[in-house]
């Protein structure tokens, strides 16, 4: 066998996407489906149905009586916008209003939910928001700690143990008897339910497939996440008991338990961490499954990998290395803002389904479904427009949609359409940033980079339910906040380097050197300069060439 005995040569023999990569990719992507399902499970398990104050001697057995508007006006005050106040009752003697302490709920779509049991309404709205925020804070913790652990101890062990723990916690959270133990389990659920398997699974795929398939595979992860959201809606429509519903959600993690035996560690991670022999053995196994006739010279590759390991000075590379050098630091901060903004708008739009008119399960399903054509278009455009321009465009236009929706009547067809288009655009940019981050940062800290990006995303995800509470002051305020942050981040994305058709950096030094001086603006200036130089160097036409068409000599 001719050629250098290094990692890139060995992975090149493997090809971009053979049978082995397809098999491992299938195992990896299951984590995305489960992560999407866990992430938005509270939308149905703790749904807040249409409700109003319980009217004494009228609503029997805590059941909403079927009253006309004229009857309701005898008991309920009206808000300035003309709707009945769902948090107050009228004193039928003095006609003064007062806050109520019990409510009745419309059971058209939900018979039971945590919100009904613990009254996540009116002055207690914060309880539902905090419950969702606790999950996101858990994902935040998992992204930081488990991301760093995956760089130090391997992608596979973090993936597999997280899968086991999310199964246990996902079922246990259905049986919590009180609100505060529910919050504690929601926090643990977030650590392992979304961050623990999803991020290592994504990184495993990015490190295994070839450059020509990274865009497709990376975006497929986001499509799988959207399928998880659709599963939330589907099961929610079928199962009306909130406890059984949560158990069903939790049991989905069973599909990841077999990964202990079926899934392989990343050959790139093994090589980078001085375990060249294991790396070579996995690639040999992959070559055999792919039907390749290539027989790797194990001793030569192991010798080269061991030598690189001895001379390597980055064995302790970790999350702090992202901030030690100027170019990596600027890229990291920019990417962190991008993750923060994408997540803020993505979950802001996803959690707004309860405020849209119509069947909440159908709306949630459509909000997941609309992401799929977005990802198909993203795959097509990513390798033509590049990551940088497409991300910036999607975020800026997504912000514009938020502003338009905020100024339309809530629940109207036009407002719903703007929300759906905004979700389409933000889903696309959110998908790209996963790929983009994996390609911007070197192998030795790639999982840490994705981890800190996910950490920022979950910070904004945790803040999103709390920001939506600001609609008590001004209904348009949450959407305006989402829009401004998205547009600022979209503009700053133009200062990141393009990664299209570029080799992935391996070492810290590679990561620092990668993309220096490459921004959208320098690229445009360079193109303009090249075009000017091309015009200047063109020879003037001869008299023969200048003759008009049709002139006979």
Automatic annotation (TrEMBL):
<feature type="transmembrane region" description="Helical">
    <location>
        <begin position="449"/>
        <end position="470"/>
    </location>
</feature>
<feature type="transmembrane region" description="Helical">
    <location>
        <begin position="158"/>
        <end position="175"/>
    </location>
</feature>
<feature type="transmembrane region" description="Helical">
    <location>
        <begin position="27"/>
        <end position="48"/>
    </location>
</feature>
<feature type="transmembrane region" description="Helical">
    <location>
        <begin position="244"/>
        <end position="262"/>
    </location>
</feature>
<feature type="transmembrane region" description="Helical">
    <location>
        <begin position="218"/>
        <end position="238"/>
    </location>
</feature>
<dbReference type="GO" id="GO:0016020">
    <property type="term" value="C:membrane"/>
</dbReference>
<feature type="transmembrane region" description="Helical">
    <location>
        <begin position="420"/>
        <end position="437"/>
    </location>
</feature>
<dbReference type="InterPro" id="IPR036259">
    <property type="entry name" value="MFS_trans_sf"/>
</dbReference>
<dbReference type="InterPro" id="IPR005829">
    <property type="entry name" value="Sugar_transporter_CS"/>
</dbReference>
<feature type="transmembrane region" description="Helical">
    <location>
        <begin position="361"/>
        <end position="382"/>
    </location>
</feature>
<keyword id="KW-0472">Membrane</keyword>
<feature type="domain" description="Major facilitator superfamily (MFS) profile">
    <location>
        <begin position="24"/>
        <end position="501"/>
    </location>
</feature>
<keyword id="KW-0812">Transmembrane</keyword>
<keyword id="KW-1133">Transmembrane helix</keyword>
<protein>
    <recommendedName>
        <fullName>Major facilitator superfamily (MFS) profile domain-containing protein</fullName>
    </recommendedName>
</protein>
<feature type="transmembrane region" description="Helical">
    <location>
        <begin position="187"/>
        <end position="206"/>
    </location>
</feature>
<feature type="transmembrane region" description="Helical">
    <location>
        <begin position="389"/>
        <end position="408"/>
    </location>
</feature>
<feature type="transmembrane region" description="Helical">
    <location>
        <begin position="476"/>
        <end position="496"/>
    </location>
</feature>
<dbReference type="Pfam" id="PF00083">
    <property type="entry name" value="Sugar_tr"/>
</dbReference>
<dbReference type="InterPro" id="IPR020846">
    <property type="entry name" value="MFS_dom"/>
</dbReference>
<dbReference type="InterPro" id="IPR005828">
    <property type="entry name" value="MFS_sugar_transport-like"/>
</dbReference>
<feature type="transmembrane region" description="Helical">
    <location>
        <begin position="332"/>
        <end position="349"/>
    </location>
</feature>
<dbReference type="GO" id="GO:0022857">
    <property type="term" value="F:transmembrane transporter activity"/>
</dbReference>
